[in-house]
User: Fold these one by one.
Assistant:
Number 1:
Amino acid sequence: MHEIGNWIIDVETRAFDPSQRMKEFFGYYIDEVMSLENSLECVTEEYREKTKEAIEKAFLKGESYNIEYPVIGLHDKTFRWLRDQAKFYPAKEGKPAHYSGTVLDITERKEFEQRKDDFISIASHELKTPVSSLKAALQLMDRIKNKPAPEMMIRLIDQANKSMDKISGLIEELLNVSRMNEGELKLNKTTFTLAHMMQQCCNHIREDGIHKLIFSGNENLQVHADENRVDQVVVNLVNNAVKYAPGCSDIHLSVEKENSMALVKVRDCGPGIAKEKLQHLFDRYYRVDHGSHHQSGLGLGLYISSEIIKRHNGQIGVKSEVGEGTTFWFTLPL
Ligand code: ADP
């Protein structure tokens, strides 16, 4: 079957001849009659009048057009974004004036654009909070600079530092993604002991006094990998456990040998993740909406983690059930 749908319309008689693919785009059966009017009825309500007007206007003036609109298929009720490009051919050598058009399914591109737009607004919003807090701290320091009260100063410097760390972290995450998109993530491999790395990483969480990181498994297993990047993956998984499993104080880390791979697990006893969400977790910009328990984040952490593991020829995955906690795991070649 062709990827592109085609159609022809006689400007005078309005006789409309859509290809089979074109009918499928509008959710019609391939042997069913579909008029131009029928097809436009499938355009979603929000876009229907605008689309009809644009096409009528072009027809009246005998102009070619190129428009995009969303439809809901007549029988299959499937939502699709279509790009409809039509060229006008004036009457010539006995052939009547007509339009010849091509229609393309652009749903995937549109959805990606939408996610990207959402992402830009989330990213700006996420950056705005620490920037405002940093600005407030600096303004206060400026106001008291001639009569500094040491305690106040210490508090403000602390606030400024925390905001700055938040900002650097977000920028680092954004840079990581752009490097990955350009295929520029270089790995600096050495041989190191996984257990050793995992007992060193995440000190910021060990020190918070709220969470316990419990290590188990093979203490001696070594891998040949980029230690900083693998560390980054573990830190990200542990940070997520802290963030998304707030009532769970014990976070379990483990290392096992499985065939020729090292298997690392990070397990929490939090609320878990709904089955239908699991497959999207490692997608770029994907975030689960936690309703009233909003957590800040860019939806990039797991995407970056999965890219790092894939570049090492390892695998990454998740096992979770609502109410049963979540286990993220990844493997690395030994
Ligand atoms: P971010 O944390 O910036 O949203 P991530 O890519 O790290 O981005 O995570 C994507 C989504 O996966 C999060 O929005 C969150 O809903 C979900 N998630 C990640 N880790 C856990 C976990 N341990 N328990 C429950 N949900 C999680």
Number 2:
Amino acid sequence: MAQEDVFKKIVAHCKEYGFVFPGSDIYDGLGAVYDYGQNGVELKNNIKQYWWQSMVLLHENIVGIDSAVFMHPTVWKASGHVDAFNDPLIDNRDSKKRYRADVLIEDQIAKYEEKIEKEVAKARKRFGDAFDEAQFCTTNQRVIDNQTRRDALHKRYEEAMNANDLKALYQIIIDEEIVDPISGTRNWTEVRQFNLMFKTEVGSTAEGASAIYLRPETAQGIFVNYLNVQKTGRMKLPFGIAQIGKAFRNEIVARQFIFRMREFEQMEMECYRFHDHEKLAHYANAATDIEFKMPFGFKEVEGIHSRTDYDLRRHEEFSGKSIKYFDPETNESYTPYDIETSIGVDRMFLSVMCHAYTEEKLDNGETRVVLRLPAALAPVKLAVLPLVRKDGLPEKAREIMNELKFHFNCKYEEKDTIGKRYRRADAIGTPYCITIDHDTLKENTVTLRDRDTMTQERVPVEQLRALIEDKVSITSLLKQLQ
Ligand code: ATP
């Protein structure tokens, strides 16, 4: 199946099974805004909980905070966002659509990469087991040509972006003959800068309202609180502050579902450390992206940045207050350096979904859709299913559920055939189902079905909690990190 079709199916699946809905759906949606449904919120909460615990629970020197979305407007001057948090935009005069110039060029780079991948795939099919990819790529003329063009374009693009050279970006679009995907024309305007921050006002106009921004990153809330936390928590360097919260960016291009939203959530951790200039100089200003292979290509999910002492120094300068760290051992005061990890909750959610979504051919010729989510992240851990809606089976099922619901998320379902109910549980990634039948009343045993293997075994009711709890808890995932 083409990757594009896989992605469409995942988006449709998210809506059909209560994971993600378009925002303001009954009003035909709002661009790049999405709402999480009953299953989406559970999965999202589990992702957040896993991240939070892996940071704060497992590290003695990392603590968390929850700072406000609204911040003093000077914060964004100090951070550089007012002057420099821009994307280069370009309009097509025929379609009247607006694009990010850098994204158009990145798509063009990806096209060269796709051409190479197609050549490789064709050759692999032709040569079978004897295929040597490395040799093929260094000798096939079409691959070499595309690689050369891709590398030259990438170099030009990188230089233009680093120099913030809008004219050079425009020239690349013209030279590469990039067309508008909608109108198919090359009737482009020049490239302009566009600030991504949302602006609003606090206070009524009568009081003299002042302009304020919705935070475009959660990190600044950590920077302005770093000394409060350090002092009250008696933290010693190196230490970290973690935060999960909403961020807002007026993204120019709304596409790729929850990958690029105007309101999204970040999980950020700033780790403050002593910076030895000689030894660590090469670390300064380093940045690395962690990418995941989405159905639309490798894309950034997490950014890791060495922000040096830039943010803290700027806040000192703009606030006029000393926020230096006092080292009791050396009796010195200094501004620490900062390493940041910043991951988007929604992009993590999308990566997990894309990885989990599976269409499986069964022995009986049917196809089942199953979300192979890690059990600890699954929205529902156990489906509780009475075989029929009579003979006291629903009552027995409720009794079992009332015991287990305190330990993990259970869902009771009595409608439709058992087969249909299993399929619905598979479609939302429920790792276990139990079926309550007539033997349950006699022997106090149930059928326990495993989502992935679809095997069923008879187990005593009193063993259910022990069998399931450990496998579905976040603790089981956290232990794998140690
Ligand atoms: P991109 O280049 O894709 O716009 P970015 O480099 O601007 O991303 P950062 O500023 O490094 O992103 O933000 C850190 C993380 O926040 C990203 O790795 C991503 O997971 C998430 N993120 C950023 N912008 C968005 C958005 N518009 N929608 C969803 N998640 C986002």
